[in-house]
Design a protein that fits this description.
With 410 residues, the chain is α+β, with helices and mostly antiparallel strands. It has 14 helices and 23 strands. β17, α10 and β18 form a beta-alpha-beta unit. It binds ligand EPZ.
Length: 410
Amino acid sequence: MIRVQGGVRLDGTVPVSGAKNAALPAVLATLLTDQPVQIANAPHLADVETALELARALGKSANWEGDRLTLSGAVSVTRAPEDVVRRMRASFLALGPLLARLGQAEVPLPGGCAIGARPVDLHLRGLAALGAEVSIEHGIVRAQGALKGAVVHLDYPSVGATEQLMLAAALAKGVTVIVNPAREPEIEDLCALLSSMGASTHWEADRLSVAGQPALGGASHRVMPDRIEAGTYLLAGALVGGEVRVANIRPQHLEALLAKLSQAGLDLARGDDWVRITREGTPCAIDVETAPYPGFPTDLQAPWIAFLTSTEGRGVVRESVFESRFAHVPELRRMGASIDLEARTAIVLGPTPLQGAAVKVPDIRAGAALLLAALAASGETALDGIALLRRGYERPVDKLRTLGASIWET
Ligand code: EPZ
């Protein structure tokens, strides 16, 4: 349980950790080689531990030294353990590398989760286009066959499907061209790792090419900063008030959020690897629609709604990436927020004073929204289900304490 005594200004600097959504594909990319791969700036998160558990179950050795991971050894198991894949959706990215490395793979279908059905049809159609025979029996995806480079068009720029195909293509025979790939910074990060392992990647206007190699070597890679963690702490400063500086980031990864915060009237300053936000007075409500990068990130939609409760006017938020990603709304209403929901749109009227309450964390980013609301609310908030929050945020209590928050764990 995390408890927060709200209404305390936030002032200070937050060091941002390595990106969860870059570290996870990086761990799975190590399945492609027997050689040692070092991954620096890896965040200590439950999801990263789950990815390491999966890699070990498949035959790799995996060890921490500070924030640096080293994975080595040959994968020897073609079947991913069900309990691990069901625990974390990104485990499904084991399919492509296992298939590419061993010629066959069996990975359970990932469950849907709090934010939607999250099908994997684009992953499977893409692997089939590379020559794999893909079938699903009793909830297990089976793929086998030698992979050959091909042109694969993605109906939607899916982050996971793009990563899945990049990982498979890295050991396929010939060049794979992914048309309409995801363009999130995490994709660039994976390109950099695969290139340093020996698979060359190349971006053009609407496509990403990956030239497969017979074998890949070891590498030493540094994970990019977590743009979603950075955006979450900026929104904490925007909501609660004070002067918050997020450090060790790439501001260019946050342009959509920074533009919206400026439009809302927040005072922003930025350097090469930091952004500072200052809230003076009442910002005005600004509409947002989530979209694939470089659009407004869906992972900041929930924290944005928490921020909107403190702005003047009517803010319309359209969630265009996932079909049901408003689990934070009922909990925010319990804290006094005025939010109407219509299908994939939330309409927030503000400013409304928030009161502390006992709330339950339904998913990672909804949990972040509730934590931000707790920091702004009058009185005490008790957040239950913080294990979910820890899947996406490293040491949130310590980091908020450095900003002056009255927050503790019981
Ligand atoms: C990644 O999920 C992230 N997770 C998500 O972050 C993030 O919200 C999402 O990308 C969008 O940016 C990781 O990187 C581990 P998608 P992913 O495939 O790959 C549909 C967090 O909180 N789709 O781009 O699953 C899908 O249903 C998490 O850190 C298909 O229809 O996202 C969704 O509506 C949450 N068929 C849309 O595409 C497919 O085969 C975007 O999904 C694949 C996806």
